[in-house]
Write a structure and sequence with these properties.
Blueprint (H helix, E strand, L loop, with lengths): L1 H23 L9 H14 L3 E5 L5 H7 L5 E5 L2 H11 L5 E5 L2 H7 L7 E5 L9 H11 L3 E6 L22 H4 L7 E5 L13 E5 L10 E3 L2
Parallel strand pairs: 1-2, 1-4, 2-3, 4-5
Antiparallel strand pairs: 5-7, 6-7, 6-8
The protein binds S-adenosylmethionine.
The site of S-adenosylmethionine has 18 residues, from strand 1, helix 3 and strand 2.
């Protein structure tokens, strides 16, 4: 009985969250953050991605935006209901492939590639944090990578929200320090007070230094 009750509660919560996302955030990639859009425009201009991979499709708000870029685009969702919803929404795009499954497992099945690939890592949810595993796979299999991690702490600007699930499970520099030795790291250059939407923080991790010139980013290292 408790099991059925829990299952019903889970389905109801999921439904509520999906309806909310579709009703209010549908036209807005990156949680409606103007600053993120500006970063993406500079990424396209200066870094010139040839492919995009997103982890955590949810109902497809950012996925619809990336699909519209015309670049080859893969997106990965672990929840079958959300995957089905996003599939209905994105089915017309021939450049788009949706994957159902756990992001690290799916990333391992994608063909390793020398293409300049932009990764949008957003598959953190409740206390499940696949981001370090995702990074290990990306660094090993995509030599030309630019990784944007959503919901990441921006040092010195507490106005940007980030995910913190307790000790060892917060999206901040300490979590990825052991993995990013030779990488170029960037944070948004604009203060959180200038952003719109949900105002979540992010970090960008690049295999080269082409974004040193970006006005929307400040180099951390
Ligand atoms: C914050 S939402 C993503 C929002 C979406 N990227 C956007 O910008 O519109 C996080 C999503 O990640 C999914 N997720 C969580 N863990 C995952 C995993 N290990 N692999 C794939 N998807 C995962 C969740 O089911 C949820 O739909």
């Amino acid at each position: 009985m408790t099991e059925i009750h829990n299952l019903r509660a889970r389905v109801a919560a999921l439904e509520q969250s999906a309806i909310h996302q579709l009703q209010w955030w549908r036209p807005f990639p990156f949680h409606g953050q103007r600053g993120r859009l500006a970063i993406w425009r500079e990424v396209r201009e200066l870094w010139r991605p040839e492919a995009v991979i997103e982890t955590g499709t949810h109902v497809g708000n950012s996925a619809e935006f990336f699909a519209g870029s015309g670049l080859p685009f893969d997106t990965i969702e672990i929840d079958p209901t959300l995957y089905a919803l996003a599939s209905m929404r994105l089915r017309s795009g021939s450049n788009v492939t949706l994957h159902l499954g756990n992001s690290p497992a799916i990333l391992r099945t994608l063909p390793a590639s020398g293409l300049r690939t932009f990764f949008y890592l957003d598959a953190h949810w409740k206390d499940h944090l696949p981001v370090t595993e995702e990074l290990e796979i990306i660094f090993a299999r995509w030599p030309n990578h630019l990784v944007q991690i959503d919901d990441f702490e921006v040092p010195g600007d507490a106005g940007y929200g980030f995910d913190d699930y307790g000790p060892g499970k917060a999206l901040r520099l300490e979590l990825i320090a052991g993995l990013t030795g030779a990488s170029n790291l960037y944070f948004p250059s604009d203060p959180s007070s200038a952003d719109t939407g949900l105002v979540r923080g992010c970090i960008l991790i690049a295999s080269d230094n082409l974004l040193d010139q970006a006005a929307t980013l400040r180099k951390h290292r």
